[in-house]
Design brief:
The chain is an alpha/beta fold. It has four domains: 154 residues, DNA polymerase beta, N-terminal domain-like (DNA polymerase, domain 1), CATH 1.10.150; 89 residues, Beta Polymerase, domain 2 (2-Layer Sandwich), CATH 3.30.460; 73 residues, Beta Polymerase, domain 3; 241 residues, Alpha-Beta Barrel (TIM Barrel). It has 24 helices and 17 strands. Helix 3 runs antiparallel to helix 4, helix 13 crosses helix 15 and helix 20 runs parallel beside helix 21. The structure holds 2'-deoxyguanosine-5'-triphosphate and calcium ion (2 copies).
Length: 576
């Protein structure tokens, strides 16, 4: 039972409440609990078992009711409320919630009015224009639903990195307990930190492969055993396929390289080997019948005259040529970061106070964080207005003064995530914008504008001397919302011209810019800010690894990233 599993139970309770049209406060309480739990670093089950409700209640965002349910889940695997609610609504109805563009209230309406219970009859109803007649639903909604269903189907089969990684790590932690395991490695797209994962690949060195097969196929989270062989097995864990292979120690490096992939990278390496008369496969490196290496991954690269290539680069995007010339970039690491330039607080839609955000930032070793609360247009309750900006500034000053008094080298930067409106104007006047330390501009509405219009909208924002950073530049939500249409070459050129920084948003659903766009930015000489967009203090530390991984996949080095710099330098690099 991972924190993620507990969080999912609470977010499903919130979903069902929403479908049922329950009290919004109740819904929000469960959503907040889910969010808190998802990003918690301590193991909830352990806390529940050790300290019960009393200890759990000490966690911010967790009250008595939720704490009791956590104890129940830790003991029994689920809670009665959840089981009861699931019984009340069709399981298939809940699956409809996963369709992009379809909200819980629409689903409730469709269910009540038309008796729709699953994707198939929803699709049929939309195609035969049965929805257009219902109050509040028009032809546009039908079109949206059909598009959503199409997207939903195309997203099936791959899991978000942030979902697959914790399960893979938990498999590794469990198997490591066995004496029979000599070495163990997460391979495949997970090791390369791709944004989505087809299946989990685990590699083990052991002299007792049958013990490994037994342990793997009987892990607690295994839902189904697809295949169980002598040295290879395949199971389903929480809906994700997981493969395991056991190899001999002499083959470990070659197998690690082979099963890390990517396939195209492997083919490139194998061809280089062939040119040298070598055979390179998952068992080793061979010259004729003689094994000349394969125990260590480095052997593979060395055998074909290449420098070591980090896993994140192994996508056949020029890394083999770079390794040949010994110009593999020195990729950025989490420890290079000195601050976060985009977080939210309870002055807009964040859950934590400025103090709490600062405290966590300091614990992460940062020297600054920019609190970038929303401007009002986004429609989020409690966006900043002129009065709140003044009051928030007083709090920022108070916090900064107390750090100074204590001799803590840390500063909260006053920032805003200002909406770039569909008419190209900014949601705050220049008069207001100029007084912030950092201005982050972002698109939150009218994603359907055509490519030309959307590009001009963002370029216009970049041309505003007050706008320092463009947040999540393509607006995508992985598996939920496609990126809006935008001319990326024009954005890059404009960013370079106007010295605007582009954000790499670390949220695992966003990772926006993506890896390819990061590399493009580097080639254009455009600076990147790796930000978290954290809406709760715990998120800052929890999601940054996904942003940094994406930056690494985009070939970024510390100097390509603005928030690897000292505060004074950052303040020089923002436009004002
Ligand atoms: P995924 O699971 O779709 O996210 O992506 P991967 O890269 O994990 O792919 P997967 O699980 O099918 O295979 C793991 C690795 O095994 C892959 O990255 C490279 C290697 N591999 C699989 N099939 C082939 C192949 O036909 N040729 C070569 N050279 N390598 C392969
Ligand atoms: Ca895989
Ligand atoms: Ca696989």
């Amino acid at each position: 039972m991972l924190n993620l599993d507990i969080a999912r139970i609470f977010s499903e309770i919130a979903d069902i409440f929403e479908v049922k049209g329950e009290n919004p406060f109740k819904i929000r309480a469960y959503r907040k609990a889910a969010l808190t739990i998802e990003t918690l670093t301590q193991d909830l089950k352990v806390i529940a078992e050790r300290g019960g409700v009393k200890e759990l209640k000490k966690i911010p965002g967790i009250g008595e009711g939720i704490a009791k349910k956590i104890v129940e889940i830790a003991e029994t695997g689920d809670c009665k409320k959840h089981i009861e609610l699931r019984r009340e609504v069709h399981a298939e109805l809940l699956e409809l919630l996963a369709i992009p563009r379809v909200g819980p209230r629409t689903i409730a309406k469709l269910h009540q009015e038309l008796g729709i219970t699953n994707i198939e009859n929803l699709e049929k109803a939309a195609k035969s224009h049965k929805l257009a007649g219902l109050p509040g639903l028009g032809a546009k909604v039908e079109e949206n639903i059909l598009k959503g269903i199409e997207q939903y189907r195309s997203y099936q089969g791959r899991a978000l990195l942030s979902k697959a990684l914790p399960y893979a790590e938990s498999i590794v932690n469990e198997l490591k307990k066995l004496d029979a395991v000599e070495q163990i490695l997460i391979a495949g797209s997970l090791r390369r930190m791709r944004e989505t994962i087809g299946d989990i690949d685990i590699l083990v060195v052991s002299k007792q492969p049958e013990d490994i097969m037994d342990a793997f196929t009987s892990l607690e989270d295994v839902e189904d055993v697809i295949a169980k062989g002598e040295t290879k097995s395949s199971v389903i864990i929480k809906g994700i396929n997981a493969d395991i292979r056991v190899v001999d120690a002499v083959s470990f490096g070659a197998a690690a390289h082979y099963f890390t992939g990517s396939k195209h990278h492997n083919i490139g390496i194998r061809e280089l080997g062939m040119k040298r008369g070598l055979k390179i496969n998952e068992y080793g490196i061979f010259c004729g019948d003689e094994r000349i290496g394969g125990e260590h991954e480095e052997d593979v690269f060395a055998s074909v005259g290449l420098a070591y290539i980090p896993p994140e680069l192994r996508e056949d995007r020029g890394e083999i040529e770079a390794a040949k010339e010994n110009i593999i970039p020195k990729l950025i690491e989490i420890s290079d970061l000195k601050g976060d330039l985009h977080v939210h607080t309870n002055w807009s839609d964040g859950k934590s106070s400025i103090d709490e955000m600062a405290e966590v930032a300091i614990s992460l070793g940062y020297e600054y964080t920019a609190v970038a609360d929303h401007s009002p247009a986004v429609g989020i309750a409690g966006g900043l207005n002129e009065e709140k900006i003044v009051k928030r500034q007083e709090e920022i000053d108070r916090v900064n003064e107390s750090f100074e008094a204590e001799g803590v080298k840390f500063r909260v930067l006053s920032a805003v995530e200002v909406d770039i409106k569909s008419d190209f104007s900014m949601d705050f006047s220049d008069e207001i914008l100029k007084d912030f330390d950092v201005v982050v501009g972002a698109v939150h509405t009218k994603f359907s504008q055509d490519r030309e219009t959307m590009t001009t909208r963002i370029v216009t924002a970049m041309e505003n001397p007050n706008v320092d950073i463009i947040a999540h530049p393509t607006g995508r939500l992985l598996r939920k919302r496609d990126p809006y249409e935008v001319d990326m070459e024009r954005l890059m050129a404009a960013a370079k011209d106007t010295e605007t920084i582009l954000e790499l948003n670390s949220f695992p659903e966003r990772l926006d810019l993506n890896d390819i766009h990061c590399k493009m930015a580097k080639d254009y000489g455009v600076l990147i800010a790796i930000s978290t967009d954290a809406h709760a203090a715990t998120q800052m530390g929890a999601v940054i690894k996904y942003g940094v991984a994406t930056a690494r996949r985009g070939w970024l080095e510390p100097e390509d990233v603005v928030n690897t710099r000292e505060l004074e330098e950052v303040l020089k690099m923002v436009k004002r």
